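Listing S7. Sequence submitted for prediction.
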Amino acid sequence: MDNPEKPTTLITGAGIGIGAATARAFADADYRVIVTDILEGEGRSVAGDIESGGGEAEYRHLDITNTDEVDAVVSTVQDRYGPLHTVVANAGIAHRVPLTELTDEKWDHTHDVDLKGVMRVCRAAAPAMRAAGRGSMIALSSIMGVAYGWDEHVQYSAAKAGVVGLVRGLAVELAGDGVRVNGIAPGYIRTAQALSEEHSLGPEGLERAAEFIPMGRVGEPEDVADVSVFLASEEARYITGQVLVVDGGLLVGRY
Protein backbone atom coordinates (compact mmCIF):
# COMPACT_ATOMS: atom_id res chain seq x y z
CA MET A 1 0.00 0.00 0.00
CA ASP A 2 1.37 3.42 -0.96
CA ASN A 3 2.45 5.57 1.96
CA PRO A 4 1.25 9.14 1.27
CA GLU A 5 3.65 10.50 3.89
CA LYS A 6 6.77 9.10 2.24
CA PRO A 7 8.60 11.70 0.14
CA THR A 8 9.08 10.89 -3.53
CA THR A 9 12.23 11.54 -5.52
CA LEU A 10 12.58 11.20 -9.28
CA ILE A 11 16.08 10.56 -10.60
CA THR A 12 17.09 10.65 -14.25
CA GLY A 13 19.82 8.42 -15.60
CA ALA A 14 19.34 6.20 -12.57
CA GLY A 15 20.18 2.90 -14.21
CA ILE A 16 23.97 3.16 -13.84
CA GLY A 17 26.77 5.11 -12.19
CA ILE A 18 26.01 8.16 -10.09
CA GLY A 19 22.29 7.91 -10.84
CA ALA A 20 22.06 4.32 -9.58
CA ALA A 21 24.03 5.16 -6.45
CA THR A 22 21.77 8.17 -5.88
CA ALA A 23 18.66 6.03 -6.19
CA ARG A 24 19.98 3.64 -3.57
CA ALA A 25 21.05 6.47 -1.27
CA PHE A 26 17.59 8.06 -1.35
CA ALA A 27 15.99 4.67 -0.71
CA ASP A 28 18.26 4.24 2.31
CA ALA A 29 17.05 7.65 3.50
CA ASP A 30 13.44 6.34 3.32
CA TYR A 31 12.35 8.05 0.11
CA ARG A 32 10.12 6.51 -2.51
CA VAL A 33 12.38 6.40 -5.56
CA ILE A 34 11.28 6.78 -9.16
CA VAL A 35 14.13 5.28 -11.17
CA THR A 36 14.13 6.69 -14.71
CA ASP A 37 16.43 5.90 -17.60
CA ILE A 38 16.43 4.92 -21.27
CA LEU A 39 18.33 1.79 -20.16
CA GLU A 40 15.37 -0.37 -19.23
CA GLY A 41 17.22 -3.45 -18.00
CA GLU A 42 19.56 -1.44 -15.81
CA GLY A 43 16.79 0.78 -14.48
CA ARG A 44 14.53 -2.13 -13.59
CA SER A 45 17.47 -3.83 -11.88
CA VAL A 46 18.12 -0.82 -9.65
CA ALA A 47 14.45 -0.52 -8.74
CA GLY A 48 14.28 -4.25 -8.05
CA ASP A 49 17.35 -4.13 -5.82
CA ILE A 50 15.80 -1.33 -3.78
CA GLU A 51 12.55 -3.22 -3.36
CA SER A 52 14.39 -6.42 -2.45
CA GLY A 53 16.11 -4.45 0.29
CA GLY A 54 12.79 -3.32 1.74
CA GLY A 55 12.60 0.08 0.03
CA GLU A 56 9.98 1.48 -2.31
CA ALA A 57 10.92 2.07 -5.93
CA GLU A 58 9.61 1.80 -9.45
CA TYR A 59 11.15 2.09 -12.89
CA ARG A 60 9.89 4.45 -15.59
CA HIS A 61 11.34 4.71 -19.06
CA LEU A 62 12.37 8.31 -19.63
CA ASP A 63 14.11 9.94 -22.57
CA ILE A 64 14.90 13.42 -21.30
CA THR A 65 15.19 14.73 -24.86
CA ASN A 66 11.48 14.02 -25.37
CA THR A 67 9.40 16.83 -23.85
CA ASP A 68 6.12 14.91 -24.12
CA GLU A 69 7.58 11.89 -22.35
CA VAL A 70 9.11 14.00 -19.58
CA ASP A 71 5.81 15.79 -18.99
CA ALA A 72 3.86 12.52 -19.06
CA VAL A 73 6.14 10.67 -16.64
CA VAL A 74 6.23 13.51 -14.12
CA SER A 75 2.45 13.97 -14.38
CA THR A 76 1.75 10.26 -13.92
CA VAL A 77 4.01 10.01 -10.88
CA GLN A 78 2.52 13.12 -9.29
CA ASP A 79 -1.04 11.95 -9.94
CA ARG A 80 -0.24 8.82 -7.96
CA TYR A 81 1.99 10.16 -5.19
CA GLY A 82 1.44 13.91 -5.09
CA PRO A 83 4.04 16.63 -5.76
CA LEU A 84 7.58 15.37 -6.02
CA HIS A 85 9.74 16.16 -3.03
CA THR A 86 12.96 15.97 -5.03
CA VAL A 87 14.14 15.85 -8.61
CA VAL A 88 17.71 14.78 -9.33
CA ALA A 89 18.54 15.68 -12.94
CA ASN A 90 21.51 13.39 -13.40
CA ALA A 91 21.25 11.96 -16.91
CA GLY A 92 24.01 13.10 -19.24
CA ILE A 93 26.43 12.17 -21.99
CA ALA A 94 30.07 13.01 -22.72
CA HIS A 95 31.40 12.21 -26.18
CA ARG A 96 34.93 12.94 -27.36
CA VAL A 97 34.62 15.09 -30.49
CA PRO A 98 37.57 17.09 -31.87
CA LEU A 99 36.60 20.59 -32.94
CA THR A 100 37.18 19.70 -36.59
CA GLU A 101 34.48 17.03 -36.28
CA LEU A 102 32.09 19.01 -34.07
CA THR A 103 29.03 19.41 -36.26
CA ASP A 104 26.00 21.42 -35.28
CA GLU A 105 24.16 18.15 -34.80
CA LYS A 106 26.73 16.78 -32.32
CA TRP A 107 26.77 20.07 -30.42
CA ASP A 108 22.97 20.18 -30.28
CA HIS A 109 22.68 16.55 -29.15
CA THR A 110 24.92 17.08 -26.14
CA HIS A 111 23.08 20.26 -25.15
CA ASP A 112 19.72 18.55 -25.67
CA VAL A 113 20.68 15.91 -23.12
CA ASP A 114 23.03 17.66 -20.69
CA LEU A 115 21.35 21.05 -20.44
CA LYS A 116 17.90 21.11 -22.02
CA GLY A 117 17.13 17.72 -20.51
CA VAL A 118 17.76 19.14 -17.05
CA MET A 119 15.49 22.07 -17.81
CA ARG A 120 12.70 19.80 -19.10
CA VAL A 121 12.56 17.76 -15.91
CA CYS A 122 12.72 20.79 -13.62
CA ARG A 123 10.09 22.62 -15.67
CA ALA A 124 7.72 19.66 -15.47
CA ALA A 125 8.11 19.26 -11.70
CA ALA A 126 7.99 22.95 -10.79
CA PRO A 127 4.23 23.72 -10.86
CA ALA A 128 3.25 21.07 -8.32
CA MET A 129 6.24 21.85 -6.12
CA ARG A 130 5.35 25.53 -6.13
CA ALA A 131 1.72 24.78 -5.31
CA ALA A 132 2.88 22.60 -2.41
CA GLY A 133 5.25 25.32 -1.19
CA ARG A 134 8.24 23.02 -1.04
CA GLY A 135 10.61 20.93 -3.09
CA SER A 136 14.24 20.41 -4.00
CA MET A 137 15.77 20.28 -7.47
CA ILE A 138 19.32 19.01 -7.88
CA ALA A 139 21.16 19.21 -11.20
CA LEU A 140 24.42 17.50 -12.08
CA SER A 141 27.04 19.75 -13.59
CA SER A 142 30.77 18.92 -13.60
CA ILE A 143 34.11 20.43 -12.70
CA MET A 144 34.39 20.75 -16.49
CA GLY A 145 31.56 23.28 -16.33
CA VAL A 146 32.90 25.10 -13.27
CA ALA A 147 36.66 25.51 -13.59
CA TYR A 148 38.19 23.02 -16.02
CA GLY A 149 38.34 23.17 -19.78
CA TRP A 150 38.20 19.79 -21.53
CA ASP A 151 39.74 19.50 -24.94
CA GLU A 152 37.73 17.58 -27.53
CA HIS A 153 34.72 17.90 -25.23
CA VAL A 154 33.91 21.59 -25.66
CA GLN A 155 30.22 20.85 -26.20
CA TYR A 156 30.17 19.02 -22.86
CA SER A 157 31.99 21.77 -20.96
CA ALA A 158 29.65 24.38 -22.43
CA ALA A 159 26.53 22.41 -21.54
CA LYS A 160 27.71 21.73 -18.00
CA ALA A 161 28.53 25.43 -17.56
CA GLY A 162 24.99 26.09 -18.72
CA VAL A 163 23.69 23.89 -15.91
CA VAL A 164 25.35 26.25 -13.42
CA GLY A 165 23.48 29.20 -14.93
CA LEU A 166 20.25 27.21 -14.99
CA VAL A 167 20.61 26.38 -11.29
CA ARG A 168 21.15 30.02 -10.38
CA GLY A 169 18.26 31.30 -12.47
CA LEU A 170 15.80 28.69 -11.27
CA ALA A 171 16.86 29.14 -7.65
CA VAL A 172 15.99 32.83 -7.74
CA GLU A 173 12.74 32.28 -9.63
CA LEU A 174 11.44 29.50 -7.38
CA ALA A 175 12.75 30.55 -3.96
CA GLY A 176 9.68 32.58 -3.10
CA ASP A 177 7.54 29.47 -3.49
CA GLY A 178 9.67 27.36 -1.18
CA VAL A 179 11.47 25.40 -3.89
CA ARG A 180 15.25 25.09 -3.61
CA VAL A 181 17.51 24.48 -6.62
CA ASN A 182 21.12 23.39 -6.30
CA GLY A 183 23.77 21.63 -8.34
CA ILE A 184 26.65 19.24 -7.89
CA ALA A 185 29.89 19.42 -9.87
CA PRO A 186 31.63 16.04 -9.60
CA GLY A 187 35.31 15.64 -10.30
CA TYR A 188 36.82 12.35 -11.43
CA ILE A 189 34.34 9.66 -10.42
CA ARG A 190 34.62 5.95 -11.15
CA THR A 191 31.73 5.57 -13.60
CA ALA A 192 31.26 3.88 -16.97
CA GLN A 193 31.63 7.29 -18.58
CA ALA A 194 35.02 7.98 -16.97
CA LEU A 195 36.20 4.42 -17.64
CA SER A 196 35.50 4.76 -21.37
CA GLU A 197 38.75 4.89 -23.32
CA GLU A 198 36.90 6.17 -26.37
CA HIS A 199 35.27 9.16 -24.71
CA SER A 200 37.15 9.80 -21.46
CA LEU A 201 40.18 8.81 -19.38
CA GLY A 202 39.85 5.05 -19.43
CA PRO A 203 40.88 2.80 -16.49
CA GLU A 204 44.58 3.65 -16.55
CA GLY A 205 44.00 7.38 -16.99
CA LEU A 206 41.52 7.38 -14.13
CA GLU A 207 44.03 5.77 -11.81
CA ARG A 208 46.71 8.27 -12.83
CA ALA A 209 44.28 11.05 -11.98
CA ALA A 210 44.31 9.88 -8.38
CA GLU A 211 47.95 10.94 -8.16
CA PHE A 212 47.07 14.63 -8.34
CA ILE A 213 43.84 14.53 -6.31
CA PRO A 214 44.69 15.77 -2.79
CA MET A 215 42.57 13.10 -1.10
CA GLY A 216 44.58 10.49 -3.00
CA ARG A 217 41.78 8.64 -4.71
CA VAL A 218 39.23 8.85 -7.50
CA GLY A 219 35.68 9.43 -6.30
CA GLU A 220 33.02 6.75 -6.15
CA PRO A 221 29.40 7.26 -7.25
CA GLU A 222 28.31 7.08 -3.62
CA ASP A 223 30.44 10.13 -2.82
CA VAL A 224 28.19 12.17 -5.07
CA ALA A 225 24.96 10.40 -4.20
CA ASP A 226 25.21 11.26 -0.52
CA VAL A 227 25.55 14.96 -1.38
CA SER A 228 22.27 14.80 -3.30
CA VAL A 229 20.54 13.33 -0.25
CA PHE A 230 21.97 16.11 1.90
CA LEU A 231 20.84 18.84 -0.52
CA ALA A 232 17.34 17.40 -0.52
CA SER A 233 17.18 17.22 3.25
CA GLU A 234 15.98 19.65 5.88
CA GLU A 235 19.60 20.09 6.93
CA ALA A 236 20.12 22.03 3.67
CA ARG A 237 16.98 24.13 4.12
CA TYR A 238 18.78 27.49 3.68
CA ILE A 239 20.91 26.47 0.71
CA THR A 240 19.77 27.38 -2.79
CA GLY A 241 21.42 28.49 -6.01
CA GLN A 242 24.67 26.73 -5.12
CA VAL A 243 26.79 24.24 -7.06
CA LEU A 244 28.81 22.05 -4.70
CA VAL A 245 32.09 20.71 -6.06
CA VAL A 246 32.67 17.08 -5.10
CA ASP A 247 36.20 16.33 -6.29
CA GLY A 248 38.41 15.25 -3.40
CA GLY A 249 40.13 18.65 -3.36
CA LEU A 250 41.18 18.54 -7.02
CA LEU A 251 40.31 22.12 -7.94
CA VAL A 252 41.70 23.76 -4.84
CA GLY A 253 44.75 21.55 -4.98
CA ARG A 254 45.71 22.48 -8.53
CA TYR A 255 44.61 26.12 -8.72
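Caption to Listing S7: primary sequence and predicted C-alpha coordinates for the chain studied. Residues 154-174 form the longest helix (21 residues). The longest strand covers residues 179-186.
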